[in-house]
Amino acid sequence: MPSIKLENICKYVCRDVNLTINDKEFLVVLGSNGAGKTTLINIIAGLVDYEGSVLFDDVPVDKLPANRREVGYLFQGLLLFPHLTVVDNIAYGLNARKWPQSRVEARVDELLDLMNIKHLASRYQRQLSGGEKQRVALARAIAPSPRVLLLDEPLSSLDAQTAKYLRTELKQLQKRLGITTVYVTHDLMEGVAMADRMAVIQNGRVEQVAEPEKVLFYPDSERVSDFIGAPNILDCDYCRDLGQGVMEVGCGGLKLTVPRERGQIRKVAILPRHIYVSETRPPGLSVNGFQGKITDIRPAGSTVKIWVSVNGTNLVAEVQSYIFEEMNLKVGKEVFVILRMRRIRCYETGN
Amino acid sequence: MSILRKLRPGWGLLPVAVFLALWELVARLDVLPGHFLPPFSAVVVEFYDLSASGVLGENFLSSLVRVLIGFVAGSVAGITVGTIMGWKKVINRALNPIVSLFYPIPTLGWIPLLMLWIGINEMLPITLIFICSFFPVLYNTVTGIRNVDTDFIKAARTLGASDGKILTTVVMPLALPNIFTGLRLEAGMAWRVIIAAEMVAIPTGIGALLMKAESLIRIDIIIVCLIVLAIMCLTFEKFFEYLENRLTARWR
Predict the structure, then answer these.
(1) Helix axes B206-215, B219-248, angle to 10 degrees
(2) B169: which chain A residues are within 8 Å (Cβ-Cβ)?
(3) pLDDT by residue (tens digit) across B169-209?
(4) The domain spanning residue A292 has which CATH number?
(5) In sequence order, what are the residues at sequence separation of 6 or more whose Cβ sits closer than 8 angstroms to the Cβ of residue A160?
(6) What CATH number does residue A69 fall under?
(7) Per-residue pLDDT tens for A327-341?
(8) What domain range is A20 assigned to?
(9) What residues of chain B lie within 8 A of the CB of A86, using their CB?
(10) In angstroms, rounded to a whole number, what is the distance separating the alpha carbons of residues B40 and B27?
(11) Cβ distance of B158 and A71 shorter than 8 Å
């Protein structure tokens, strides 16, 4: 499996893109719609003409047409061939490469097992659910043992539960196969959950390439910070293991409960949209629930940003405009906020 | 309920039976002036006589052979040229204006020209049927091929398929429904055209028999010919509908 290097790539919105993807790495390309994400992987796949150079293991592949680059590509629309059964779809790339029939059959069997889709073998794509199509498309993409795997928002059309499940599975599979992978998404949390490194691109420019925590806690620029949703980042004074898989961290005036991490937690981050705001005290045991005072309210497109001061610590929360209109929130008013524990990201250093 | 359900496939025949009964009744009661409507039973008898004497069979066969040769040749040529035009933009750009010029000409409009070029022989109706099938099949094939989502082509390409492989294993199969639309329409149309050609220019075939019956004022024979025609148009169209279902219903 090769490393991939992009040198001075220009195409459509992409301008002078330089990017290196390490051998066996899972790189997430993160950007909003029209940022040039799909263009970038189409260039790696050789599906479009471009200026600049693409190198696999330092060897230029610009002259190689798409059908000889040996990339596996999982398209956003999946594009299973409707006139072929699941088996024939998976075998397509093998037959195209003129594998002998016995090897094709063995390989298809292996993939049906690997993806747990043996029972779907003779179905057509219209007889498959969204998640099943996903598995078949992935099996088809990796069947010819490509050198590089490219994934274009493959989970965006699935419901949250299925997407979460497949995400884990995909990541495990990638590690097992040790295949260099580029994964395109606009979903920050998806990127953070999966990436070895993330490349944030905006308007065809690579703004930052770093580990997910780096991007989250140390955004290189205002643009990156804005794109990832300007998270609340809090410095931690101390952290204490509470047992039961959770830890308590003290951040200024806040005592937060977070999922346990191995090292010493230095910072925590939470996106404004993952902070709930309520006028009344929420019923029941509220983990990470606090009382605070509104210091500012600003509309931001379809949402409204609300600044809340809790024991001297400032938090920014974000609510949908239509929900905001139902509420009676004013600057100076006392409100309750809840920081969703599972959404808090921690930045830790060694023990 | 179960009896009703069993009968359902035969329900299409019920209106036909009612129609035939009414026809018989009206003709027997002689309510129409001029004796120009023989009863259905007389037509059936004539059908039998014509078949037994071999007149119907002979004329039917010569029409059938013309339709088959012309239609098969026209369709094969139409699909071949259509595929090349649909697949290669340059060729499409070169040929499309010419095809657009020829396509709207009604097939029967070619008769005078072809009579002079070919003369009155078997090649004349066959050429007419060829023209009648070629252009619509070509047109539908081009549309079918061009309508295949280019993303499928990209997907096949990343899987390692060459252009030729993509054409035969992805593009052509996905264009089949469109190609069949062309074939199905033209299979019936070929019969309509052959009758007209035989009525005007050729002395054999069902169309010629029709014209002879007209000059002898044999309305029963005319009706027999029309029934044969209706059945053939329907059979040809249904055959392609069946073939289309066999080939594409699994995945559509």
Answers:
(1) 160
(2) 92
(3) 999 999 999 999 999 989 989 998 999 889 888 889 999 99
(4) 2.40.50.100
(5) none
(6) 3.40.50.300
(7) 888 999 999 999 988
(8) 4-227
(9) none
(10) 8
(11) yes
